[in-house]
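[stage:ingest] chain + small molecule (adenine)
[stage:ingest] validated
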Amino acid sequence: MNFHVMTLFPEMIEQAMSASITGRALQAGYLNLETVNIRDFSENKHNRVDDYPYGGGAGMVMQAGPVYHCYQDIMSRIAQKHAEQKTKVIYLTPQGTVFTQKMAEDYAKEDDLIFLCGHYEGIDERVLEEIVTDYVSIGDYVLTGGELPALVMMDTISRLVPGVLNNEASAETESFSGHLLEYPQYTRPSVWRGKEVPPVLLSGHHLNLQKWYREQSVIRTAQRRPDLLERADLTPEEWRLVRQVLGEESYE
Ligand code: ADE
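[stage:predict] done
[stage:export] tokens:
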């Protein structure tokens, strides 16, 4: 996976991506990261990339020219690799489609992804029309810029790229797979502040363990994210468990 990020704060992207699992995957070559500073394509002597909005109003707007030339710079390198395939250009904006695990799975299949991080009050609409393929939001709140949302997306996508997680199975069994949350986890000591680890985890009984994991996932999803259950594939017995959890809670 090759990530390309158009930003005014390349160090913010590089620093965050160089830590932990993504950092190791970058070093090992499972991921590549290129940050390109939009300011390097400024068209004026003061290195500015923003200007006052036509029509007036608060704040500044990023100009079309620097963003477009930054994009062309990145594309000149990608186009040599696979000219036939349209590379996705993702603009991070609260006006976009809200990012989901399913979207991450689809993005993880791409060879290259370009992220466009805006700042100030936005970017001149004309360049967005020209280059952006996907408008994506990470949630219904407003951040100061697109860098954190781009990092959220790259982190989520990275762990779905083969080789990035050393444990292949862990990307599959966690929260949201099958529209259920993950079961609770425990490690040593077996008793902590008087609280015991559920005995089934110490039993070594494989079948009972699998049953317990599944049951705990259903219970946890019912308690914390009942909205997810609509799309989960549950047995009649599991639905009874859901009703039991929800029913009991509503009388508390
Ligand atoms: N830019 C500012 N807020 C954002 C959000 N919630 N998602 C994506 N990009 C943003």
